[in-house]
TrEMBL record, chain A:
Membrane topology according to the record: Multi-pass membrane protein
PROSITE patterns cross-referenced by the UniProt entry: ABC_TM1
Record-given protein name: Osmoprotectant transport system permease protein
Transmembrane helix keyword on record: yes
Provenance organism: Micromonospora matsumotoense
Keywords from the UniProt entry: Membrane, Transmembrane, Transmembrane helix, Transport
Transmembrane feature ranges: 42-60, 67-86, 92-110, 192-219
GO terms for cellular component: plasma membrane
Family stated for the protein in its record: Belongs to the binding-protein-dependent transport system permease family.
Subcellular location: Cell membrane; Membrane
ABC transmembrane type-1 domain segment(s): 32-212
BP GO annotations: glycine betaine transport; transmembrane transport
UniProtKB/TrEMBL annotation, chain B:
Name of the protein in question: Osmoprotectant transport system permease protein
Location of the protein in the cell: Cell membrane; Membrane
Pfam families, A to Z: BPD_transp_1
Keyword Transport among record annotations: yes
GO cellular component: plasma membrane
Taxonomic source organism: Micromonospora matsumotoense
Family, per entry: Belongs to the binding-protein-dependent transport system permease family.
Domain of life: Bacteria
Keyword match Cell wall biogenesis/degradation: no
Length: 228, 240
């Protein structure tokens, strides 16, 4: 009875192999699931924190400068350094990866949301005020809907970069698909595994981006019906 | 002793700086590979960006390239490129880093030329300048603030990303963090944080120095457009 390892069936070291995908579908799917769930949770958390921050920056003009400057400085700090600062305290695990990627996604969303809110035309704001809108009513019924394209751009950028950033989590062994890529590299430079991980990363980013673009179209019907 | 105290102790040990593979070596590696990557990125992205901007075509391609590289994990390029004809070693790492320098350089070169005052362009044409002369003597000088902003964004991003070269043992300051993680968190916590401080410090220093360079490189009358250029550069790239 011969019992050989599946990757030996294909000679050499191909860049892609269906056989590898078939034989390791469990591992691949687990990595994909972890990657997708980390990304989803990160973007959701980031949006929940970023939007109130952006509104604060929009209402209190004096805080806009400091908030944007702080996000700019944080953004310059390399992801690996952020892992290095956080890991000794939060330990080796998904929480650390989540914290790092949430921080980066947060910055992207805050910057775009502030830009979107600041693009609300002053005439519209004045008109809303003249019609007796209070601060909160104006926020929810005028400012936020008009800033929605900017906010959605931020969320899409944050999602795509988060998908790429999660792979840095391999430094603490929780990189989702990055784990697959890294293991392939260490496992005698197994190209098929590296390529599968990479392709799934790019595909995941593409699919999530398309979904968000679709949601954006549904949420902003007025942008569609504009006469050309 | 908590990790921060450990980090202070680690950073205060002179041998950690001067040993082979110590901090000084790593900073040298980090800066030399970053410089090579940015240079390579400039050589590729600037001519293409300027030419596309001059001919007014390919705006869609510029956006597409930016978005595509945004979704490719750095780890993937760092592991794939050594397995191609580039082979293991410095060239593969430099090319991988250069790929991430291209989008901001390209986008800024393109918008820099596109935003040149159409009247200046028309006037140059009316004076009988050829297309090449218009690009060299009118559009290029007007694009300098954008080129400088793109250079700064790209260089800072490459310095930040170069920390990841340690995943494939490519050297650089990231190596210190990786070695710390290799020790286990209780023993290596100090070294991990010390490495993080060094990596972050280098990135912030690069940002500061290049902000100055950008200011010097931008002719005074054009300094007003600097902020717009920065914003564009920030929009064109996100994620490191």
């Amino acid at each position: 009875m011969s019992f050989h390892l599946s990757y030996r069936a294909e000679p050499g070291n191909p860049w892609f192999s269906w056989q590898y995908v078939r034989d390791n579908s469990d591992t691949i799917l687990a990595a994909l699931r972890e990657h997708a769930s980390l990304t989803g949770r990160a973007v959701l958390l980031a949006a929940l924190v970023a939007l109130p921050l952006a509104v604060v920056a929009y209402w209190y003009r004096r805080l806009t400068g400091p908030i944007l400057a702080l996000t700019g400085v944080l953004y310059t700090i390399p992801s690996l350094a952020l892992f290095a600062f956080i890991a000794p305290y939060l330990g080796i695990g998904a929480v650390t990866v989540l914290t790092v990627v949430v921080l980066y996604a947060l910055l992207v969303i805050v910057r775009n949301a502030v830009a979107g809110l600041n693009q609300v035309p002053p005439e519209v704001r004045d008109a809303a005020e003249g019609m007796g809108y209070g601060r909160w009513a104006r926020l929810f019924r005028i400012d936020l809907p008009l800033a929605l394209p900017g906010i959605l751009t931020g969320v899409r950028l944050a999602t795509v970069s988060t998908v790429a950033l999660v792979t840095v989590g391999v430094v603490i062994g929780r990189g989702g698909l990055g784990q697959l890529i890294f293991a392939g590299f260490q496992n005698n430079f197994y190209k098929a595994q590296i390529m599968t991980g990479t392709l799934l990363c790019v595909l995941l980013a593409l699919v999530l981006d398309l979904i968000l673009a679709g949601v954006g179209r549904l949420l902003t019907p007025w942008l569609r019906s504009r006469p050309r | 002793m908590n990790p921060v105290q450990q980090a202070v102790v680690w950073l205060n040990d002179p041998l950690n700086w001067t040993n082979p593979g110590g901090v000084l070596d790593r900073i040298g590696e980090h800066l030399s590979m970053s410089a090579a990557a940015v240079l390579l990125g400039c050589l590729v992205a600037w001519p293409i960006g300027l030419w596309l901007g001059h001919s007014g075509r390919g705006g869609g391609a510029v956006v597409l390239i930016s978005n595509l590289t945004l979704s490719i994990p750095t780890l993937a390029l760092l592991t794939i490129l050594p397995l191609t004809f580039l082979g293991f070693g410095r060239p593969a790492v430099v090319v991988a880093l250069a790929v991430f320098a291209v989008p901001p350089l390209l986008a800024n070169a393109y918008t820099g030329v596109r935003q040149a005052d159409p009247e200046a362009r028309d006037a140059a044409r009316g004076m009988g300048l050829s297309g090449w002369q218009v690009l060299r003597r009118v559009e290029l000088p007007l694009a300098v603030p954008y080129l400088a902003a793109g250079f700064r964004t790209a260089a800072v991003q490459v310095v930040a990303t170069a920390a990841l070269a340690s995943f494939v043992n490519g050297g650089g300051l990231g190596q210190i963090i990786r070695a710390g993680f290799g020790l286990d968190i209780a023993a290596g916590g100090g070294q991990i944080i010390a490495g993080g401080v060094l990596v972050a410090g280098l990135a912030l220093a690069a940002e500061g120095v290049l902000a100055l360079v950008e200011r010097v490189a931008t002719p005074r009358p054009l300094r007003r457009t600097r902020r717009a250029a920065n914003r564009r550069a920030a929009d064109a790239t996100a994620g490191n």
